[in-house]
């Protein structure tokens, strides 16, 4: 962004109109009021893609147009930047330092200037202080520090999430950065990614004026098919993927064959083990046992370090009440179907306002309380050499 002089010579700029040559018709219109601006973020905090100016329309049948004036520093006079019949003006490219607007009547008379707006990079929000990720099947879940919002809640607009290729061998992000999306939350799901292909991520904060912060620390991750980090949506957000069944023995052979384990299903089905409920009162998420033979319980009243810590299912304590999904906590399920009892477990990795991410395990041996994470068959692509 062009350097901004701190000693603003407003008076010198406001007399720019008097310096125009020729006879100046008598102005009949009041000056435009409440000139404001919004920058167009580009990904480079120092070089916005443009600026949008807006002001209150002058309500007069004598109005012919508006003139927009700008200057790059406070040591020079304002110059005519453009003219428009709209009460907005888009200036493409790196913005000037200051702008003001005048109203022109049908006889050519020009009003006094509006207020002057100054593009001041000191209004940038702080960069997100951290960035973490979780590998998913064809997706990456991102979570970062919400310090930009906490620093200035009234001036915060949203976050921008960027991604690029990542070279595992060299440990470098590529230069092919693209915008993944924007969000007002401090989390984001980068979806429809190729499994086994590393990606690099960065996040910036945008103010209501359009100032883009510096980027967060960069993070890299690789989507992968796995029994860990399964994502299930809340029913009110995506019903078709809000249910989960640990095992469906479709061929009746008693083994967890490919395509039978860890099934994300429609939350309307009655044969799923549970579905995810979104509480509208506080946006909390809950596991709701669904199949008539399925009951659940909290594994223990404290977080578990890993899914493998849930090694043996408790013999009692199961019920049909829904259980709140809390990151780090473990849950155990008992399913009785056709007279056979099977145990399963999960550990919650992350909870957003829309979905839950968890690791899961299931025991295919009837009545056996020992829980082990299932092994999936090898995927067709090469595994990631070093996902985070």
Element order: H for helix, E for strand? HEEEEEEEEEHEEEEEEEEEEEEEEEE
Please give the radius of gyration in angstroms. 29 Å
Number of domains: 3
Strand content: 35-45%
DSSP strand count: 25
Distance between the first and last residues' Cα: 35 Å
* Biggest sheet statistics: 5 strands, antiparallel
**What oligomerization state is this entry in?**
single chain
Approximate shape: elongated
Q: What would you call the structural class?
A: mainly beta
What is the residue-averaged pLDDT? 88
Q: Fraction of residues in helices? A: under 10%
Model regions low in confidence, pLDDT < 50 over at least 5 residues = 1-22, 375-388
Number of helices: 2
Concise summary:
The protein is mostly beta strands and 388 residues long. The chain has helices at 10-14, 147-151; strands at residues 36-40, 50-54, 63-71, 79-84, 88-92, 98-105, 117-118, 131-136, 139-144, 156-167, 172-173, 178-183, 187-190, 199-207, 219-221, 230-233, 243-247, 261-265, 274-278, 285-289, 294-298, 323-324, 330-337, 340-351, 355-362.
Task: Report what the structure shows.
- The protein is mainly β.
- It folds into three domains: 113 residues, Immunoglobulin-like, CATH 2.60.40; 91 residues, Immunoglobulin-like (Sandwich), CATH 2.60.40; 133 residues, no CATH class.
- 3% of the residues lie in helices and 38% in strands.
- Strands 10, 11, 12, 14 and 15 form a five-stranded antiparallel sheet that branches. Strands 16-25-24-23-21 form a five-stranded antiparallel sheet, with no helix packed on it. It has a five-stranded antiparallel sheet with strand order 18-17-19-20-22, with no helix packed on it.
- A hairpin with a 3-residue loop joins strand 24 and strand 25.
């Amino acid at each position: 962004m062009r350097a901004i002089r701190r000693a603003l010579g407003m008076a010198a700029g406001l007399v720019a109109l008097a310096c125009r040559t020729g006879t100046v018709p008598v102005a009949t219109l009041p000056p435009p009021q409440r000139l404001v601006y919004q920058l167009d973020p580009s990904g480079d905090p120092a070089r916005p893609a443009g600026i949008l100016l807006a002001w209150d329309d002058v309500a007069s049948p004598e109005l012919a147009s508006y003139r927009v004036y700008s200057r790059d520093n406070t040591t020079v006079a304002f110059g005519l930047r453009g003219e428009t019949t709209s009460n907005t003006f888009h200036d493409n490219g790196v913005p000037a330092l200051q702008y003001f607007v005048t109203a022109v009547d049908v006889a050519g008379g020009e009003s006094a200037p509006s207020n002057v707006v100054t593009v001041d990079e000191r209004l940038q929000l702080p960069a997100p202080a951290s960035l973490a990720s979780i590998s998913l099947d064809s997706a990456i879940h991102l979570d970062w520090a919400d310090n930009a919002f906490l620093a200035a809640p009234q001036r915060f607009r949203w976050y921008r999430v960027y991604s690029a290729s990542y070279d595992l061998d060299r440990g470098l992000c590529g230069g092919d950065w693209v915008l993944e999306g924007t969000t007002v939350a401090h989390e984001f799901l980068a979806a429809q990614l190729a499994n086994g292909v590393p990606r690099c991520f960065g996040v910036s904060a945008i103010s209501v004026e359009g100032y883009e912060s510096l980027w967060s620390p960069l993070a890299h991750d690789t989507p992968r098919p796995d029994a860990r980090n399964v994502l299930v949506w809340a029913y009110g957000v995506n019903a078709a993927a809000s249910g989960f069944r640990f095992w469906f023995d479709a061929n009746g052979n008693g083994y967890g064959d490919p395509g039978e384990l860890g099934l994300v299903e429609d939350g309307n089905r009655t044969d799923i083990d549970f579905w995810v409920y979104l509480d509208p009162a506080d946006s909390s998420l809950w596991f709701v046992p669904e199949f008539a033979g399925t009951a659940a319980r909290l594994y223990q009243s404290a977080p578990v370090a890993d899914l493998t810590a849930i090694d043996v299912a408790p013999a009692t304590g199961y019920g049909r009440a829904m259980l709140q999904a809390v990151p780090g906590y473990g849950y155990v399920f008992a399913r009785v179907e056709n007279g056979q009892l099977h145990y399963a477990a999960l550990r919650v990795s992350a909870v957003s306002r829309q979905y839950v991410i968890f690791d899961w395990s299931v025991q295919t041996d009837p009545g056996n309380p020992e829980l082990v994470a299932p092994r999936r068959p090898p995927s067709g692509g090469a595994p990631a050499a070093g996902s985070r």
